Amino acid sequence: MAKITYITSDNQSHTVEVQNGLTVMEGAVQNDIPGIDADCGGGMACATCHVYVKDDWFNKIPKKEDGEDDMLDMAFEPKTNSRLSCQIIVSDELDGLEVNIPSKQA
Amino acid sequence: MKKTDALIIGAGPTGLFTAHQLKLIGLDCEIVDNLDKIGGQCIELYPDKPIYDIPAVPECTGEELTNNLLNQLKPFDIKFHLSERVEEVKKEENNWLVKTSGGNSFLTPNVIIAGGVGSFEPRKFSPKECEKFENKSLFYLVKDKNIFNGKTVSIFGGGDSALDWAIELSKESHVNLIHRRDEFRGAQATVDKMHTLVKDGKINLFTKYQMANVHGEQTLESIDIKHDNDEIKNLKTEYVLGFFGLIMQLGPIANWGLNLNKKTIEVDTEKFETNQKGIYAVGDICNYPGKLKLILSGFHEGALAARACFKLARPDEKYRFEFTTTSTNLLKRLGKKE
Hints:
By secondary structure, chain A is α+β, with helices and mostly antiparallel strands.
């Protein structure tokens, strides 16, 4: 279990508890946090669950695997700290993680 | 105006199998899809990715699945209307009048929405100002490459479309290629060819840059691109091309008076009918308690919606359930019996 904070582009902060094994994307969708579309349902095929991970966390969480950066090319306003939230799997180590949701997903 | 027993919106796996089920029970149908090819997300998003959870098919790619479904449709004559988006659905007595962007109209008692997560549209540049030049000097696809001859064209993207056009247009135009990182995801041979052209001074390559702004009154004059380190560069350019792939948009479906839940349409689980009689939703686009976004669920939903269509298309006949193993009627329709 990890407490994860999602910050929307209008600076609304939502902190929820997400079970280990779920993805950061699922944590947002199941808790009705706005701004994460996840059109493809977690298949790394659409880039609509794009988030920015705060710098100190970006280096702590498991690295991007093949293909994630390819999809991020298509995301709305990608930055160096962009991730697809469907590819970040929640574990105890992620307790306190903060992610920022872009103003749009496409 | 075309009359049909059922109109299917979406030529993905669910739409294709729904067509199979309609034809099998003796109804005719036509299919409209906004993409220029059959297969939906399977073809557009993951043609080469293997799928492992289609019943009785241990492993197949999106492309193989689509081809197998088309094979299964071979006994039937089904009209496809590709590169057309359904714009309008209106009630007309006991029928729905459906109009497409391609100028087709259909009169049908049954409309089956098998639209995935909506229609595929090109992903666009983020700065609002880009809209002003869209389809004039800023494009998301190339219709006539000759307009670029002798001009400066700035191409954005890191996939095959961006690379192929950068290479092609470098013959007759001044090409800037701009991408958000150093790595390109296009085919290796294409990436190598691009790098050779960069070395030869035929392509100006800018990596770790993204579109920041566009300038010009009537016509486009220049663009600002921004580096990861926030440095801004101004490039004189007459044309801009953006290749960021496709995104799914619900589009006009949102205006048809259906009960929506986020990007999905609420249906019952008996007929997969929406709140509008004779309009059904199947596959990823429908929602009901326990909904799974799996291809196999789409097949089941389509089979049931097809049976519901029968009642509205043949109000004076009674639908009789039959098996393909034994029914002479079905075997005839499948071309297996005279």
